[in-house]
Amino acid sequence: MHSLFTEPFLTALLFGAITAGVPLLFVGLGEQISEKAGVLNIGIEGMMLFGAYAGFVAAFYTGSFALGFVVGGLGGMAVAGLMALLCVRLGMNQIVIGIGLTLGAEGLTALLHHFQFARSYPRLEKAPVLEIPGISEIPVLGPALFHHNLIVYLIVAATFAIGWLYKHSDIGLNLEAAGSKPGALDAAGVSVVATRVGAVLATGFLAGMGGAYLANVGAGLFVPFMTNGAGFIGIVLAMLARGKPYWVLLGALIFGISLAMTTALQVAGLNIPTDVVQMLPFAMVILVLVIFGRHSVLPAALGLPYVRGER
Amino acid sequence: MSAAPEAARSQGLPPTLMAGRGRAVAAAIARFLLPILLALVVGAVILLLLGTDPLAYYTYVIRRGLFSWLGIQATVTRMAPLLMIAAGLIVAFRAGIWNLGADGQFLLAAVITAALGPALIGSLPDWLTIVICFVVAGLVGAVWSLVPAFLKVRYGINEIISTLMMSFLGISFANVLIKLVFFDPGTTVPQTHTLPVEDRLPRLFGSTIHSGILIALAAVLIVHFVMTRTSFGLKLCVVGANPRAAIHAGLNVGFLTYATFAISAGLVGLGGAVDILGVWGSVRADWNPSFGLLVVPLVFLARFHGLATIAFVMFFAVLQVGGESAAVRLGVPTFYTLVLVALLLIFLALVEYLDYRRQVRTRS
């Protein structure tokens, strides 16, 4: 077994963990914002997938990865806009609409992909990498942690920024109130609907960027149904993180490792059916829920539309 | 989660069509048909944008799925597993539980059935093999829902996420079983042994339709009867509508929750058995019809009503079967059906919302 723990193996494992974990970090952080504000965003899988498609199309036709991320984010936000209109503004059932949006994004992206790319399956070139001078030379850790696209460092920084916002800004407090005591927020003269709409749109933007990362950096191409439950794992991360972004970061890294196992084990020469490895993240979610389930906390008003004066 | 019971409450029973008041009948029909109509219209716009003539597509789909003998046989055959899943979902949704893990429950039960059937058929009579397969498939589905049930009863964890996770897990696990345990060494692509055609569920009246459709129709009707006309069904509905009230009424909410999960997932598992024993006889690796989430909107559209569910499942089966031949002939992939279902779900919620608003306005 000692041959497993060679330098290339560990580097591949850690590098893969980051690549696989970053999309989860995006959706986990996004879902956390929605849930804080009291919206259970089941449609996040669809937002992520639509972002992946939009981001890929943008990057493919312009050749710009940066534009790919922005358009991916906007794509996710477009789906989120529908969710905000139907669930927050009109107060329709969040779960039914969430499933509907996810199915719709799956069908629509697969359909569009079929007409545009199904014959050619075009690939993007490798995403530009920003090596951080000095620390990227450290053995194992350097190439694994500091040879990534700029967006990776940005989203990690954003994790801490969001943590600060939650604690020390009006926005954070409004979000919190919109989820746990929407009536109080309303009484304080802040619109619950506007707060939640903002939260859902932010979620869509983050989920869409996560999807764009998955397609453009992770895979280099768009494949129908490629998110394959990553959005749902994001929901679990948000549930277990109890409103703390740092826990989402940690969770995304752990899930990233379990996802990266396939490639890493193949590098090490072990051949395990991909299905076994594909089970890992979901088995882990279940295990984590069984063990730490009692500690997962959701806001009081989660899933309920806000109607003024109603209890 | 209180969203599910709320949905159950606002949906309630569909107004009976025998009410005799023209306006009520019209309103009921509008509530059923309007979402379908809107979805078809928006779907047509999407087809137009993709450069396909929507009218040609729809007529082709209906002709192929409904107005040809081959098509109608395929449609009715397709209805069997869908109806079993629908029966399972009706139980769960009426009891306020979001069982979104049907895909995993269905596929695992299908794989176990496909492994068990050919193994038993040599030593046991046909009818006994089929009975054993059904029992085991139901149990497999039920067992796969135990973890979400436990998490919900013990820690109050929302079953939406846990059933979805178990579903993904089940789909991969089913593939692992085919590739590592139950594979038929005589085939190149990994798949289970095949149940001979003559040992499958008997066909009806010389057609290709198998008798599983009768089981499925019976399942939906029995579920409807149990959930609306028996004290057990009423207890489940009370738990779904208001768990706290259920506790005060002295109901054993924990037990009833476990029972709901087990019955719901068990019925979905039976759906897997019906499809394997009736149509396929074996399961190939990476086969996944992913019926689970597609049936959800149909059950909602039917407002959890048994007869209405049968009608909508038939509508959907026509779309799917016709859509499959349209994919070959007109070049519109079957993903389009997915888009239609999504549109249906969204317009369904919208029509329901508008209807609710209208009711509030007339009351005040």
Write a structural description.
- The complex is a heterodimer of chains A (311) and B (364).
- By secondary structure, chain A is mainly α.
- Helix content of chain A is 71%, strand content 1%.
- Chain A has a two-stranded antiparallel ribbon.
- Chain B is mainly alpha-helical.
- In chain B, 75% of the residues lie in helices and 0% in strands.
- Chain B is globular.
- The two termini of chain B are 29 Å apart.
- The N terminus of chain B is likely disordered.
- Classes of the chains: A mainly alpha (311), B mainly alpha (364).
- The interface between A and B is large, with 51 and 55 residues.
- Chain A: One of its GO terms (cellular component) is plasma membrane.
What's the topology here?
The complex is a heterodimer of chains A (about 300) and B (about 375).
Chain A: H1 7-36, H2 44-62, H3 65-89, H4 94-117, E1 130-131, H5 141-145, E2 147-148, H6 150-168, H7 170-180, H8 182-187, H9 192-219, H10 230-240, H11 245-267, H12 274-292
Antiparallel strand pairs in A: 1-2
Helix pairs in contact in A: 1-6, 1-9, 1-10, 1-11, 2-3, 2-4, 2-9, 2-10, 3-4, 3-9, 6-7, 7-9, 10-11, 11-12
Chain B: H1 3-11, H2 22-49, H3 54-65, H4 69-94, H5 102-121, H6 126-144, H7 146-155, H8 159-181, H9 212-229, H10 231-241, H11 243-248, H12 253-280, H13 292-301, H14 306-330, H15 335-363
Helix pairs in contact in B: 2-15, 3-14, 4-9, 4-12, 4-13, 4-14, 5-6, 5-8, 5-12, 6-12, 7-8, 7-12, 9-10, 9-12, 9-14, 13-14, 13-15
